[in-house]
Each structure stands twice: as C-alpha cells, then as structure tokens.
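hey can u check if this looks right to u? its 476 residues, i copy pasted from the old doc so theres a chance i mangled smth
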Amino acid sequence: MPELLDFILGHEGPFRKARLPSLYSDFRHLQTTNPDGYAANVSAWRTALAHAAREGRVPGPGGSNDLLCLSTGEELVRELESKEWGRPLALGTVVNEWVARRDMVPFDAYLASPQSIYHSSWTVTPWQVFSWGLRQLGLGGGSWKEDKLAVGRFVVLENVEACAKNVTRAIAGRARVDRIFSREMFEADFSRSLGGSSKLTDADFSILLTHLARDKGEIAYDGRTIRFRSAGEAKTAITVQDTTIASLKTLIAGHEAQVSTLTHRIDALSTTARTAVGKKSRASALSALRSRKLAEGALAIRSDSLVQLERVLDSIRAASDQVEMVRVMEASTGVLRALQRDVGGVERVEDVVEELREQMGRMDEVGSAIAEAGQPQGVGGEEVDAELAALERDAEREREAETAAVLARADRPAEAAPETTVQKEPDTVVGEEGAGEATRAAAALGRMSLDETPRGGAREAEEQRRADEAAALEAG
C-alpha cells in the first residue's frame, strides 16, 4: 500500500471502509442528485490531502515533500491508488472545487500577486479554474464527461495560516533586536513551525514569508532581512540598522557553529592520540596531538571573537531597549499633555469644584423644602406640647384615684367583721361573767375566719399588704 494512502486510512475518520467506495467513485453526479453527499465527499478529500501535506506525506517536485504546497498529477494519483477500490475518479473535481473556493491557490500566482489574497478584488472564478485546468492538460475544448486532474503546484492556505500563527506566537513578547533575522537564521529557527517531524522546504519558506509580509502585514522583508513588527508599529521598510543587526546575529551564529565543531574535533583528536599511544604508534599520536594544538588555537581565536561579537550585540540590544523606552515616554508625555488640555488647568478644576458645591447646597435646600411640605399646616409645636402635658396630668390623676380606691376596699372588710358576726345565744342561762367570756370567744373566732394570721401580727400583716397593693398600682 502506498505511504500516502496508508497515512490517510490510518488518520482520517471519513475514510472508513463503508465510505471508501463512494469516495473513490466518480461522484460528480451527486452535485445535482445529492448535494450534501457531494459536499461531504469533496470536504473529506480536501481535509485528508491538507493533513497529509502538513505531515510531509505528499510527494513533490524533485523528491521534496512540501508542507504548505500540494503537487497534483500522475504521481499523486498513484499514491492514492488502491487494489480494492482503484483510482479516485473524482480527484480532479476535488482540486477544482478547492481552488474555486479560494482555499487553494496556484503556486506561481500566489507568489506573483501584488495584492493580499484576502483583498476583495482577489478572486478566482470557477470558469477560470476549469480553463486553467484545460490549459494544463493541453486541451482547448472537448468533452466534459471525463474528470481530468490538472498537473500543477498549489498553495494550501489552511496549512499556511496554521504555520504563520505558530511563528507569530513564538515571536510574541521578544525585544526589537530579537525580532530581526536574516533569511538563513529564520529558516534555521522555524523549520519545524508546523510541529511535525518534517521540515519546511525552501518553497514553503517563500510562501510563508510572502504570507506574513503581504497578506498579514506582520513582517518587513526585503528578500534577505526579516523584521517582525511590534503591536501598533507602522509598516516601515527594512533599514540599514536592521540589516546590520541581522548580519551581526548571523555572524554570531556562524561563530557558535565553528566553536562547536572545533570542540568536537579536539575531543576526537584527544581520543585518537590516546588510542595511538595504546597501540604504541608514536607517529600517529604526535600527529593527533599537533592537530589538536592547532584546533585549540583556532578555538581560542573563535571564542574570543564570539565574546566580542556578543558584547557588541548586547550593547545594541540595550540601546534598542532605551530607544523603545524613550519612544514610550514621549508618547506618554503626549497623552498627559492631551489629558491636561482636556482638564483645562487648575483654575478650571477649582471652578468645577465650586460649582459642584453650589449645586449640592441647592439640592439640600430643595430636600429641606420637600420635608417641610410634608408636615400638617397650621399646627404649632407649642400647642402640641401643651396638649401632651394635659394628657399626662389626666393620666396621673387617674392612677392616684385607682390607688385610693384599692386602699379603701382593703380597709372595709376588717372594720365590718365584728358587726357581721352573729353568735347564737346559748340555751343555758349563764352569769354575766360567762356571757363576757362567750362574747370574747365569738369575736376571736370571727377574726380568725377573715384572716388566718395569728392575732399578735395581724395589724402588721394588713399594713404590709396595703403597701404592696399601692406599689403594684403605681408600677402599673
């Protein structure tokens, strides 16, 4: 099974066994009989081919597997051919639909266009697509019954936009000097921007840089030097300073590579010398040691040069940061000046505060007037106080009368007790002394029936009871 077909069957959900007969058939007639099925088949092929190109699985010209391009032709058809389902019979229709919707653009037209692909005037009509396909096939007319796949190289915009987004995300937050690259450095730093195992090709970088410069306006690019613009920065061209910084960074990168190479060479020569000594090969050991000495001398020179170059770059980076700070401070001064102009100075502020106090005082007066309007008319405060005092005096007199009535009711039963007590005269005639004793006994019994308190403390108990009742009435 071809590698491309194996990748699609293993990673694309729509390419399950039940749908493969429909996907490999000539489904052009579904455009009128089943538009939804037609659109689903076209979308499945588009998504599968875009993902395969992003992973470097689609063969390109010269054996290169472009990640942002799709090369169509007989080689692509062979990579998709299956023993069970044969060749995809509607692949030409899929490519034509893809281009007609402006999701895929011919490679040469993309790089040569002076306008952004997002510009409203940048359009490709279906008729132009089919005409272009016929020209690629060498046909000026003829039958439309057979699906023909045009041979060409197309830019897959879905992959281009994903790659550009990853690059701009990696650049975000860097200082100005760190946003300047030569093309060589840019290719070395962002060769795996799509996150897969495959690297971007030279054609991919041409597409990516064109997209960032022309379509997105994220960079300034003159063919050799690249500068990413910061947020809000004007679209200025590459300057001499940008070119110098890019050259310096490229030179530093070259020295770093040379230092790494010399270090590995010294390690290898040391190993060779030890091996030669172990084999008792004096000449080989001496040759290895001489070569190591030369490499160590070259390493010292390159290391010193690298330190000097990095020192220069650090100075440029510090100066660039200071320039940015001065620009920010200058812009801040302008903002403060504009705000001060809007405020109008201290005199205007004082006038505003004074007017605010005056208006607040007026509002307080309005509130007081509204509160006075809510009170009853014709009622004075002295009349209300006098009426309240009269009501309090009446209440006091009523309490005193109730207290006196209670005390009177408490005295009345004790005085009437001897009169109400009636004793039956004894049937037996007794003497005067006996009659006196009987009278005293009857009086004692009468008092005991009214109050069971012993005779010695009766008076004190009665007085205490009256005092308690009077206190209770006053408290009530």
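Residues 42 and 361 are 76 Å apart (CA to CA).
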